[in-house]
Structure formats: structure tokens, C-alpha cells
Amino acid sequence: MNIILMGPPGSGKGTQAANLATSLAIHAVSSGDLFRDHQRRNTDLGQLARSYMERGVYVPDDVTIGMITEWINDPDHAAGFVLDGFPRTQAQAQALDEALSDRGGIDHMVFIRVSDDELVRRLGGRVICTECQRPYNLNSSPPATAGKCDYCAGELYQRDDDKAEVVSRRIEVYNQETEPVVDYYRQAGSLSEVDGEQPVDEVATALSEAIGARLVG
């Protein structure tokens, strides 16, 4: 299956995307993963993306779509994929559909819905490993050792955009960008919504049930 998993910052979609991909024996990727990979390998697309990012402006859709399309067309991903948090705009969704026109398009988009108040609470306590990028939450899922990653012992830090003074604005911007995308897939008949305020394992179960219903359907 070709699946999109979306949710606002703090919804836990990164963790759920990885778990979902493992359970379905397919691969998951985010646009951020691809940006980092292309820049690490210094590809043409990576250099182009860097030129925009260094100026503090959004990377154009055609560059991002180019990275996504290249990744999707890798034979290792022929069985399907989970796109983590992409597309972010309706224009990206339409471009993605065009890129996938010969592969049946997107089978299912699942949106993890979380209230703004809960997102502010979660993001205010989020820290990330400097080495492996694994996220923790000091309120709900702290590391075993303060300031250290449980998996690689990397130092933990709080991103500037996770600080309280900018969290609310991030959520507002995300909602403005993403609601048209949610509506786009709703109108296409490929949308499911999952309550993201449940415990992590219950969210995972709800996602599996949503995907399973789509398979049966």
C-alpha cells in the first residue's frame, strides 16, 4: 500500500509511521529525512535545497517532489511506503498524485488528530537526541537518564521551535496549511482520522485498524 500519515507537530506521527511501516513490511520516510540524506550525499537536489534553506525560505515544491519521487521509484520501495508528514500543502498533494499516476496513486491517508491544547502541553516538554534524532517528552516519556538518549547516549536538546513562545504559532500555521490537504484526501475518499490523544499503543492499534479496513474494503 501507498500510505500517507499526517498529524500536527507533537502528534507522534514519526514514531507511528516507523511502527506502521515495520508492521506492513514496507519503508517509511519524511521529507526531512530526504533533505538530510541528499545534503549528506551532496546531490544536485541536496545542493538546490540547501541554497533555499540557507536563505531561510521554503524549498520549492518541485525540489521536494523530486526527492520524494526519486525515493518512491527506488526498487526497494516497490511494495509500498509510508510518507511521514508529506504532502504539507494541496499543491504538493496534487503534484504527488501526478508523480504516482502510474503506480495507482495514494491508497490511504490517515490523519492523527490532536487538540491544540494537548499539542502545546506535549511540545513544551519535547527534547530530541542530537545523534539519532529520537524524540522524548519530559512529561510523558522521559529518558532513563536525564539529558541522555536511551539508545545511543547522545545529548538531548530542545529545538527552538519547540519552545513555548513559538509553539502556538507553529500549530496555527500547520493547521492553516494542512486542513486543505485533509479536505483534498477526504474528497478523494481515501481519508481516515485517528484520535491521537490516546496512549501510544492505542493510537498504533487504531492506525492498524484503519489500514486494515482499507485493505478489506
UniProtKB/TrEMBL annotation:
Pfam families: ADK (PF00406), ADK_lid (PF05191). InterPro entries: Adenyl_kin_sub, Adenylat/UMP-CMP_kin, Adenylat_kinase_CS, Adenylate_kinase_lid-dom, P-loop_NTPase. HAMAP family: Adenylate_kinase_Adk (MF_00235). SUPFAM superfamilies: P-loop containing nucleoside triphosphate hydrolases. This is Adenylate kinase. Residues 126-161 form the Adenylate kinase active site lid domain. It comes from Geodia barretti. Belongs to the adenylate kinase family.
